[in-house]
Structures are given as structure tokens and as C-alpha cells.
UniProtKB/TrEMBL annotation:
Domain Periplasmic copper-binding protein NosD beta helix, first and last residues per copy: 233-356, 371-494
Domain HTH marR-type: 748-792
Transmembrane segments: 624-643
A Pfam family annotated for this UniProt entry: NosD
Residues of the HVO-0163 N-terminal HTH domain: 673-730
Name this polypeptide is given: MarR family transcriptional regulator
One example GO MF annotation: DNA-binding transcription factor activity
Top-level taxon of origin: Bacteria
SMART domains associated with the record: PbH1
Protein keywords: Membrane, Transmembrane, Transmembrane helix
Length: 807
């Protein structure tokens, strides 16, 4: 025997046993149930059976194998932890029992079957069978654990909840009554002169009819009433520029046919259900219509215009916003805060708003459907942030800055029509699926930055800048789109699939897994190139004019260098790939012009490159030079005899040579890089070219240029040593060519110490022509290497060769 809670389940198996061998296997028997009202069984393919406790009571389940062997369960008792139920007007055990009540015809209400345990109290709202005693007067719409009651016709009824045929509870007697009518006219002659007084006198179901006039009021609507203006164009409810005109806190309210103006909030719906706001003009407000935590309300066929926020929903569920005109709002035309409006924001006309529609939920929600709306002349038509739980479909966008803008979210965007905007669809950090959109007469069709969008079967025509522009995209797919004659460009991206037809696609610094080039499709493979224009001495040249021509003699770039000699980043094509042929666009010819002087260079593009180009500038004119040469020539003619003496001839020629040096000698070391090179050679005499370049992180060209300047000006001297070119500061004693494996400076120091044991640092420096700071550094290296030893004698330090000590 076993006991099961109501709605619980179990599995039973028929185990076959042998009298001698014991358990053999699970069998496939025939199953039977003794009480199908209480228990249900469902045989499964493996021979077992699924048991469910359907209703309170008793049953047995039996198994028969081959019509000869059978076995049965014990008595299975189904019990419920629910001891009683109550029909209430609020969920989760709140609200009141629905006793005898009056309902005005056409009103709706929600009933819940609250289940209770005698000890533990309320447990949950139950799924029950709902019935009505009079379906003509009282209609029921089932929703699982609650039911919607609708007063359909005059009369009486009761609504009953049946829990498994064991526990029952009914409402009191529900009376469906006609709607009472109260009239309001500020000119008199009606029931009341103000709407406020009419609301005070009204009961649930009252119709308040308002005649033409101006009513300066702030109203609390806490009863289920209809507030109806008879002439919207001439019936004004004025908030005097502050507060809320209609604060609605009751369910089943309808406000229609009014002009509501000059307020902080025109209409504020607070935690209400089944409320209708329709056929009104709401204008000159901070917030036009605000739905706060409402359910199943209808906002339709209103004109909401001339404020900051038009229609706002906050945590609303299944509100319907239909066929409204929303215009001239300086913040948002419509805004949804964490609302779930499944198929409920439709057929609206939004125009001349800063942002027509904005959605940025903070919670994970069911998809909101924004469908079949018209957007005209808005700065931004649709803006979605931080959300993928929205479907943007079948909308029309005309004119404005941005059509659809998605930031940090990945909603579905499909079958929208967008025209005459700066940006058709703009994605930022979005993996949206863009399908079947048509974008025409825009500056930019589709732009995307970051993440992994899928862009498929879109038609983009007449884009003045880009039909498609993607940057920093990863694992995206571009499939079956028609870009017309527009420019399609992808940079710094990796893509899964690319299909190109009837258009040209430029790929800059980008890669792909699959590339399908169809009819009239072309893909250009491009790379980033940036040039730096330098003078011969390594100084940047600003204002240099640049022109680059490809191998087909097409001018592809014309630019000017900036203060640092840099050109902008340039995208140059390596090749153009068509359906049947590949065109190589290398080499490129680059022409640089400075002050009317031109030089040409050749570039080959097959990767991203940063290139420095050296430009030979003409020597500066020196008008005083001619006069000086004439004077020197006259002076020289006076000393013709001395020209036969070699030292005199050399001295005079040296004077002449000074005037032909382009770079003043005193300025040679003022250049930063050249000064670093000279300082390094002073500290490391005899270092070869490769070591100098590597130690100072210089390019080959830069190092060669500055070493030539230093050598020409006499600051350093060079000496070839096998495959090496070694450099020394001026005044240094150059070593003999002995081929020793040590560096030349170390060979010279060791040779000096070996020839004169106990020599001091000052004497070595004088003999070798080195600075004492340079020599001290090299002596420390030799001591650490164990090639010499250092010994202090009084206040002086002496050096000895380790080799001579061993001898």
C-alpha cells in the first residue's frame, strides 16, 4: 500500500523472477487500472508504466504476463495537501472572497482559486475547472490558474471552482447591471459642473459624459467608470502646467474623447488592468500617457504631441499601443521600461520626435514586437540598447538622422523599409540578424562595429557613402545582399561567409572562411598603409603633397602630410577578385612633392605597412656665400707662393670646405637620435654597426644615415674588421688587425695591462685615448669576466693580467 499526493507521478515495472534463479529481467506485461477516475496509467516502450495521481481516492494497478502470470500493487491512496479552496479577486492569497457583487455590463474582472492547508494556510493558486451558472450573462476566459470574468448581459450568475471533483467553492450571486450615466457641463444645465464632483457621485460602471468646455482639474479615478467627452476638439481638461490630470488606480476604466493639456502627466495608469485610453488628444506635457505596472490595457487612436515623453510603459504586461499618432517630443516619442508587449506596439505613426521609439530594459523579458509602425522626420527613429528581447519588423522609416540604431544588444531586424536617412541601420557591439530590409537614398545603408552580425538578403540602393560598412567584426556572415552601385567595405574583421553579387566589396585587413563571388561580383583585397615623409637627416616634413597611382594608372590617393610627416591611414588594394579573373594592382607609384620638388617611389602592397620615405630637400640659399668666395679668391691670389706648401694649401682648402657643409658642425649632435648614437659609441668604442643598431632600436636606414653624418663631421671614425664595420670616438687609438675573438676595446685594454703590469686607470686612458668613465665601465666587465684582477695599493688601484700571473 502506498499514499500519493494529488498530481504526483511514479513509474512501475513488472520484474520477472524464477523460483530457483531469482530475478531474471523486466517483462512487457499487460497493465490494468482499477479506478481510472483516481489514477491514470500510460504504458511505455520498455515495458514499464507511467502512473499519475489524478484525483483524490483509491486504485490498484496490476500486470499480467502471457495471460497466465499476474501481480498487483497494494492499495494506492491519492490524497491532497489542499484542504479547501476559496475564489478570490487577487492572486497569491490576497484580496477578498468574491461574494455577492454588482458588475456593470461589459466590465471584466479576474478570479483566482486559492488553495489552503488547514495547518499551513495558503499554499498556491490552483488550476481548477471553472463553470458559470449563466453563460449568457457571465462569460469566462480560462488562463490556467485564473479566469477572466466578463459581464456580458443583464442578469445573475455564480462562478464555481472545482478542484479534481473533491474540493469546490463558488462566488456569491453576481448581478450584471446597466451603466448609470452622469453628465458634466461647466456652463451648467448638467448633473455636475466639474468632473471631480461627478467622480465623487459615481459608482463602478458609471458613464460620465462631459459637454464642451474647459475644465481646470487634477483627477483621481479610483472607480471603474467611463469618462467620455462628447466633442474632443472642444472639450479641454487643463492641468494648469503642473501635476497629473488623470491618475487612474482602478481597473476597467475608459477615458475617451477629450483634449488633455498643460500638465506634468496627462494620464497616469498605476497598477491597473483592462483600462482603455482611446480617441484623445494629449498635448503640452512632460509625460503624455504613462502606464505603470499595468496589465492588458489599451492605448489606441490617440494624438500625443508637443512634450518630452509621449507614451511610456514601465513594467507593463501585454498592454496594447495601437494606431496612435505620436509627434513633436523633444526626448522620446515612446519609451518602454522593462515592459512585455508581445505583438502590442503596432500601426502607430511617429513623426518629428528627437528619438521616436526607445527600448533599454534592465531585465530578461519575453520578446517585445515592434511591428508595422511608420516613422517620419525623427532624429532617430528606433533606438535599442542593452537588449536582444525585441523584434523590429515591417516598419517604415522616412527621413532623419538614423533609422534603426542598436547598441550592445542583438535583436532581430527584418523586413523594414528605410529611406532618405544618414544611417539606415547602425549596429554597435551587436550580433543582430538583419534579414530582408530595404534601404534606399541613404548616406550609409548598414554600418556595424564589433560583435558578430548576420546580414542576409537586404537590398540597399543609392547610398552616397557606404551601402555596407563593417569594422572590427568577428565571425559575421554576409549573405545574398544586393548593394546596388553602393560602396561596401569591411575592415579589420574576420568573417565566416561572404557572398557577393552585382556589387563590389572591399576587404581591408580582413579574413574569411568561405568566399562566394557570383555574377557581377567583385572583391577587392586591401591593406592599411601609412607613410611618413622624412628629410635626409630624419626630420619630419609637414605639408608634403602625396599622390599614389596603381598599376592600372588610376589615381587612388591624394593627401598631405601632417606636422609629424604622417599621412592618414590609406587602404590600398592588393588585388581585385572577380568571378573568373584576378587583377593584381601592384606595384603602386607614389609621387611626393615638397616646395615644387618631386620624388617618385615604388610600393608593393601585400600586408599592413608603415613606411618611412626619405625626401632630399634642396640646400638653403646662402647669398653671402658668393661674396665670401670672391674675397677668399682675391686673398688666395695674394698668397700664390704659399699654395705650393702642402700644409698651407690644406688649411686654405679646409676654409673653403666649411662653406659647403649643409649641416653646421655645432648642430650635428643636437639631433636626438644622432646624439644617442654618439654617446653609445663613446661608452662602447669599437662596437660594430649591427650591435649599435640593435642596442638603440634603430632601422638600418636611420642608423646608416646618422653614422655617416657623424663620420663626415669627424665625431667618429670607422674601421672594417672582417665582416664587421666598427666605430670609435674621435681621438681613440685604433687597434691592430689581430683577429682576436674579444671585442677590440677589450683586446686593447688586455694588451696594455699585459705589457705594463700594475698599471693604473689614468695611464691606460692616456695610452688608449679613452675617457676614464668609458674605460672604468670596460675594466669592470673584464674583472667580472676573470680576465684581469684589480688590486688596491694605498689610495691607488692597480690592474694585472691574469694570463701573466699564470706565467
Amino acid at each position: 500500500d502506498r499514499t500519493y499526493l494529488l498530481d504526483s507521478a511514479d513509474y512501475f515495472f513488472a520484474a520477472g523472477h524464477n523460483s530457483s534463479l531469482g530475478y531474471r529481467r523486466d517483462l512487457r506485461p499487460s497493465w490494468e487500472n482499477s479506478n481510472t477516475t483516481v489514477c491514470t496509467i500510460s504504458p511505455l516502450e520498455n515495458g514499464s508504466v507511467y502512473f499519475r495521481a489524478k484525483s483524490v481516492g483509491h486504485c490498484r494497478v496490476s500486470a499480467t504476463y502471457l495471460n497466465s502470470i499476474s501481480n498487483s500493487t497494494g492499495n494506492l491512496t491519492v490524497v491532497s495537501e489542499i484542504d479547501y479552496i476559496i475564489v478570490r479577486d487577487s492572486p497569491d492569497g490576497f484580496g477578498d472572497w468574491v461574494g455577492s457583487r454588482e458588475y456593470v455590463i461589459t466590465t471584466e474582472h479576474t478570479f483566482y482559486a486559492a488553495g489552503y492547508n488547514n495547518t499551513r494556510g495558503f499554499l498556491e493558486d490552483l488550476e481548477v475547472v471553472w463553470t458559470t451558472s449563466n453563460s449568457v450573462s457571465c462569460g469566462l476566459i480560462y488562463h490556467g490558474n485564473y479566469v477572466t470574468f466578463k459581464a456580458k448581459a443583464l442578469g445573475y450568475c455564480q462562478v464555481r471552482a472545482d478542484y479534481h471533483g473533491v474540493l469546490l467553492n463558488s462566488t456569491g450571486l453576481l448581478h450584471v447591471v446597466p451603466k448609470p450615466i452622469i453628465t458634466v457641463d461647466d456652463d451648467g444645465g448638467a448633473d455636475y459642473p466639474t468632473i471631480h464632483e461627478a467622480l465623487e457621485a459615481a459608482v463602478n460602471g458609471t458613464i460620465i459624459r462631459i459637454f464642451n468646455g474647459t475644465y481646470f482639474e487634477h483627477l483621481l479615478v479610483n472607480k471603474s467608470v467611463v469618462i467620455e467627452g462628447l466633442d474632443k476638439s472642444n472639450t479641454w481638461v487643463n492641468g494648469s502646467g503642473y501635476g497629473t490630470v488623470f491618475l487612474v488606480t482602478a481597473n476597467n476604466v475608459r477615458i475617451t474623447g477629450l483634449t488633455i493639456e498643460f500638465s506634468s502627466h496627462g494620464i497616469f495608469l498605476d497598477h491597473v488592468e483592462y483600462t482603455n485610453i482611446d480617441h484623445n488628444t494629449v498635448r503640452w506635457y512632460d509625460y503624455g500617457i504613462y502606464s505603470n505596472y499595468s496589465k492588458r490595457t489599451y492605448i489606441e487612436k490617440n494624438l500625443v504631441t508637443g512634450g518630452s515623453y509621449g507614451i511610456v510603459t514601465n513594467h507593463s504586461d501585454n498592454d496594447a499601443v495601437w494606431n496612435n499618432e505620436i509627434s513633436f517630443n523633444d526626448v522620446y516619442g515612446a519609451k518602454d521600461y522593462d515592459s512585455e508587449l508581445s505583438k502590442c506596439f503596432n500601426w502607430n505613426y511617429l513623426h518629428h520626435n528627437k528619438i521616436a521609439y526607445y527600448y533599454d530594459p534592465d531585465e530578461d523579458l519575453r520578446p517585445l514586437v515592434l511591428d508595422s509602425n511608420i516613422f517620419e522626420d525623427n532624429e532617430i527613429a528606433i533606438l535599442v540598447e542593452q537588449s536582444s528581447s525585441i523584434h523590429i519588423t515591417n516598419n517604415t522609416v522616412l527621413r532623419g538622422e538614423k533609422g534603426i540604431s542598436i547598441l550592445n544588444g542583438s535583436p532581430f531586424v527584418g523586413n523594414n523599409s528605410i529611406a532618405d536617412v544618414t544611417y539606415g541601420i547602425e549596429l554597435t557591439n551587436s550580433s543582430s540578424y538583419l534579414l530582408g530590409n530595404v534601404i534606399g537614398d541613404s548616406v550609409n545603408g548598414i554600418t556595424a562595429f564589433g560583435e558578430s552580425p548576420i546580414i542576409e538578403a537586404n537590398i540597399i540602393h543609392d547610398s552616397s557613402e557606404y551601402a555596407l560598412r563593417l569594422e572590427d567584426i568577428v565571425d559575421a556572415s554576409i549573405l545574398s545582399n544586393d548593394f546596388g552601385n553602393g560602396r561596401a567595405a569591411i575592415s579589420n574583421s574576420s568573417l565566416n561567409q561572404i557572398q557577393v553579387q552585382n556589387s563590389t566589396l572591399q576587404l581591408t585587413n580582413s579574413s574569411w572562411e568561405e568566399l562566394d563571388i557570383g555574377k557581377n561580383g567583385i572583391v577587392e583585397i586591401k591593406w592599411w598603409v601609412q607613410l611618413r615623409i622624412l628629410s635626409e637627416d630624419g626630420e619630419p616634413i609637414s605639408g608634403a603633397t602625396l599622390k599614389i597611382v596603381d598599376s592600372q594608372d588610376n589615381v587612388v590617393v591624394e593627401s598631405v602630410s601632417d606636422e609629424e610627416g604622417l599621412t592618414p591611414l590609406i587602404a590600398l588594394a592588393q588585388e581585385r577578385v572577380g568571378e573568373t579573373e584576378i587583377l593584381n594592382l601592384n606595384p603602386y607609384h607614389c609621387e611626393i612633392e615638397v616646395n615644387g620638388r618631386k620624388q617618385r617611389y615604388e610600393l608593393t602592397v601585400d600586408s599592413n605597412q608603415f613606411l618611412s620615405l626619405s625626401f632630399e630637400l634642396p640646400a638653403k640659399e646662402q647669398p653671402w656665400l658668393l661674396y665670401m668666395l670672391v674675397a677668399l679668391a682675391i686673398l688666395a691670389s695674394c698668397f700664390v707662393p704659399t699654395m705650393s706648401i702642402e700644409r698651407s694649401r690644406y688649411a686654405i682648402l679646409t676654409v673653403f670646405m666649411l662653406f659647403y657643409v649643409k649641416l653646421k658642425k655645432e648642430d650635428v649632435l643636437s639631433q636626438f637620435t644622432r646624439g644617442r648614437i654618439y654617446g653609445y659609441i663613446e661608452a662602447n668604442p669599437g662596437e660594430h654597426f649591427g650591435a649599435i643598431r640593435k642596442a638603440l632600436s634603430l632601422t638600418n636606414g636611420n642608423a646608416v644615415y646618422h653614422l655617416q653624418v657623424l663620420e663626415k663631421q669627424g665625431f667618429v671614425v670607422s674601421k672594417s674588421d672582417g665582416i664587421y664595420k666598427r666605430f670609435y670616438p674621435r681621438g681613440a687609438v685604433l687597434p691592430p688587425n689581430d683577429g682576436a675573438p674579444l671585442s677590440e676595446i677589450h683586446q686593447r685594454i688586455l694588451s696594455c695591462i699585459h705589457e705594463a703590469p700594475s698599471i693604473g686607470q689614468k695611464e691606460i686612458a692616456n695610452l688608449l685615448g679613452l675617457r676614464q668613465s668609458t674605460l672604468g665601465y670596460q675594466l669592470q666587465k673584464l674583472v667580472k669576466a676573470g680576465l684581469i684582477r684589480r688590486e688596491r695599493v694605498g689610495r691607488r688601484v692597480r690592474y694585472y693580467s691574469v694570463k701573466s700571473d699564470k706565467k
